[in-house]
PAC domain-containing protein (Anopheles merus), 150 residues
Amino acid sequence: MPARKGLLAPQNTFLDTIATRFDGTHSNFVLGNAQVNGYPIVYCSDGFVELSGFSRAQIMQKGCACRFLYGPETKDEHKSMIETSLDGKTELKLEVIFYKKNGTPFWCLLDIVPIKNEKREVVLFLASHKDVTTAKMSEMSMSDECDSGK
């Protein structure tokens, strides 16, 4: 019996293409298998490992909703939006508070994109995570200054 890599051959083509194209570009992303319940992570970039503080071994096979990044300030509404996007196999762009392994919160621009095969079936999810904490803090600081200037 031949060794399996965890995905069917056509999906491995997608996986290899995406991993090769985006990894090493300082992108923070995971790829989730859209054809298995829970959408397990089948690949995570070096950037995502660095951003989250979790090791690759701790990340692999967890769901690509990345619930392990949820914390006290992660809004239930945002959690629900992430689940709805994955279950509906639809795109989502959202600013959400996530938490690193050490408990440090960070503002994340989450971008979930379904990836289709040649049969137009969603086979993978690309979930990109961009740390926007600095920009968000500047935005909030400017908003506070405007409010206090009234």
Q: What stands out?
A: Residues 42 and 65 are 13 Å apart (CA to CA). The longest helix spans residues 133-148. The chain has one domain: 9-148. The helical segments are 9-22, 46-52, 56-59, 76-88, 133-148.
